[in-house]
Design goal:
three-stranded mixed beta sheet, mainly alpha, Olfact_rcpt, globular, 10 helices, single chain, 76% helix, G protein-coupled receptor activity
């Protein structure tokens, strides 16, 4: 290990592109997606809060997912937008640490939350008569708290071991403070960090993914036993939105953290990170609202109420 190290007070982010026209295009694109994300997720939270028909476990977890998505995208998107319009793309050291911690915590919490939502759908489809008894308030709150605690604990561990490393320079080839990008600045041996990232990936990504696969395996088995085509279609409909989000989120992250390394990996990492930071939080409320008749009905009810008041 080298004895000298760079004492960093700020990091320089290279961003997505150095071309001015490309940066302006990306600014408009990211700003549009960011605004849609804010409006969509806040609207989901308001609809679930205002409509009593949405006061059940499924929508409790959906509201928590929207809250986590808001926190995640707000930890990255505002700074990315500011940097797209500035020549100096710098971020203070402790702001970088906070950004990494927050994004990891929200991302980890979301994976565990998707696992909890898969269990909720399993109970709804396989044990419909006992759904409200099994998914009682205490269990829902316990699952929600467990998801957040697991996400924040993993993030704290990963953030500490990342920033304890001696750094050779302060130029991060990324648009945000991200674990793999920061590790590339290290002067010393990062084999321990690689092992911990692999363990973290298994615990935070593969365990919830396994729960999702197990739950949906049981769900598909139960649905295929339903005799009527209408009943099967309705059962699949209750799970389609969640399954779409699961494939989208797990697929992007598994590709980034558990996929093979190559010379193009750095640029691919940035594209996948952009998708997960901005695109996925924007699509989540759209997927759930457009495919969910109860959410659409709640939105119509609120709009009619405002129209009547006018």
């Amino acid at each position: 290990m080298r004895s000298s190290r760079t004492w960093v007070i700020e990091f320089i982010l290279l961003g997505l592109s150095s071309d001015l026209e490309t940066q302006v295009f990306l600014f408009v694109l990211v700003l549009t997606m960011y605004l849609v994300t804010l409006v969509g997720n806040v609207l989901i939270l308001l609809l679930i809060r205002l409509d009593n028909r949405l006061h059940n476990p499924m929508y409790f977890f959906l509201s928590l997912l929207s809250f986590v998505d808001l926190c995640y995208t707000n930890s990255i998107a505002p700074q990315m937008l500011a940097h797209l319009l500035s020549a100096q793309k710098s971020i203070p050291f402790y702001s970088c640490v906070l950004q990494l911690y927050t994004s990891l915590a929200m991302g980890g919490s979301e994976f565990f939350l998707l696992g909890a939502m898969a269990y909720d759908r399993y109970v709804a489809v396989c044990h419909p008569l006992h759904y409200m008894v099994i998914m009682h308030g205490g269990l829902c709150l316990g699952l929600a708290a467990g998801c957040l605690v697991a996400g924040f604990t993993n993030s704290l561990m990963e953030t500490i071991i990342t920033f304890r490393l001696p750094l050779c320079n302060n130029v991060i080839n990324h648009f945000a403070c991200e674990t793999l990008a920061v590790l590339r600045l290290a002067c010393g041996d990062i084999s321990f960090n690689k092992v911990m990232v692999a363990i973290s990936g298994f615990l935070v990504i593969m365990l919830p993914c396994s729960l999702v696969l197990f739950s949906y395996g049981r769900i598909v088995t139960a649905i295929l036993q339903i005799r009527s085509a209408q009943g099967r279609s309705k059962a699949f409909g209750t799970c389609a939105s969640h399954l779409t989000v699961v494939f989208m989120c797990f697929g992007a992250t598994i590709f980034t953290y558990l996929g093979p390394r190559s010379a193009a990996s750095v640029e691919v990492e940035k594209i996948v990170a952009l998708f997960y930071a901005v695109v996925a939080p924007m699509l989540n409320p759209l997927i759930y609202s457009l495919r969910n008749k109860e959410v659409v009905a709640a939105l119509r009810k609120v709009l009619e109420k405002f129209r009547d008041e006018e």
